[in-house]
Amino acid sequence: MASLEIKNLHVEVEDEEKKTKKEILKGVNLQMQTGEIHAIMGPNGTGKSTLSQTIMGQANYHVTKGDILLNGQSILDWPVDERARQGLFLAMQYPAEIKGVTNAEFLRSAINSRRPENDQISVMDFLKELDHNLDLLDMSQSMAERYLNEGFSGGEKKRNEILQLLMIKPSFALLDEIDSGLDIDALKVVSKGVNSMRDDNFCALIITHYQRLLNYIKPDVVHVMMGGKIVKSGSSELAVKLENEGYAGLRDELGLDV
Ligand code: ADP
Ligand code: MG
Ligand code: MG
C-alpha cells in the first residue's frame, strides 16, 4: 500500500507578467492511500489546479510552507520526471505534441521509464495491453500509430489521457477536470477507464466543478476546497448536497468569508 500526504501546504504562484507572487494555497491538508478514490470540488479560482500542479512539481508553483510526502518521504526536491517515475501522474503534464513520436512509442517509453533496466516490457506484452485498452476505451487501433496529440480532437485528447493512465498504471493519478467539454458518451467511456483502474495499488484524486462525473466514478471521500484550503471533507453524499445547495450554502454553514 502506498500513501500520499499533503501537510499544511502553502503555495505561491508567480505571475510572470506582473513579476509578483501570490499565495494561492493556504494550508492544505490531505491524506490519500492506494485503494481509495478522492474527489476535490470547489469554485473556480480556488486553487484546485494549483494543488495538482504543485503535487506534480511544475515550475512556477513555490511551496513556502508544509510538505508533500510519498510513503512518508518528502518529494519537494524531486523534479517532475522523478515524481512520474515514482508513480505520480497528472494527465495534463504530458506535452501537447512531440514531433515525430507516435502515441505507441511515447507510451512504451513512459512505461519503461517506471521499470528497471533489466525488466523492460516486451513488444508483445505491450501490444497486447495496448489492444485491450484501446478496445475498452472505444478507440481505433490507428490512434496508436498517430503522432502524439498531433491533430487530435478535444475528445480524442481526453480519451488518450485515459489511455495513458491505463497503460502507465500510476499509483496516484491526479485527474484535473477530465470531464470538461465531454458529451455524455465520452464521459461514460472516460469513467469506465478510470473505474477499471480501481484496485489496491491505485488511488485517484478527481478534481471537478460538477457532481455529474461523480455519478459515474464514485469517490470514497469528497473534499471541498475554498480560498486555498480544504474546508470540508465527507462521503460522496457531500457532492450531492453541494450540487443542490451550491457553494454559498456551505459558506454560510461554515461561516466562511472566502
Ligand atoms: P481552480 O483550479 O480551483 O480553478 P487555480 O489553481 O487554477 O484554481 O487558480 C487559483 C488562483 O491562482 C487563480 O487566481 C489563478 O489566477 C491563480 N494562478 C494559478 N496558476 C497561475 C499561474 N501560473 N500564474 C498566475 N496565476 C496563477
Ligand atoms: Mg479553473
Ligand atoms: Mg482548475
Automatic annotation (TrEMBL):
Claim: Oxidoreductase is one of the keywords in the record: no
Highest rank taxon of the organism: Bacteria
InterPro entries the UniProt entry points to: AAA+_ATPase, ABC_transporter-like_ATP-bd, ABC_transporter-like_CS, FeS-cluster_ATPase_SufC, P-loop_NTPase
Keyword tags: ATP-binding, Nucleotide-binding
GO molecular function: ATP binding; ATP hydrolysis activity
Domain ABC transporter: residue ranges: 4-252
PANTHER family: ABC TRANSPORTER I FAMILY MEMBER 6, CHLOROPLASTIC
Similarity comment: Belongs to the ABC transporter superfamily. Ycf16 family.
Annotated protein name in UniProt: Fe-S cluster assembly ATPase SufC
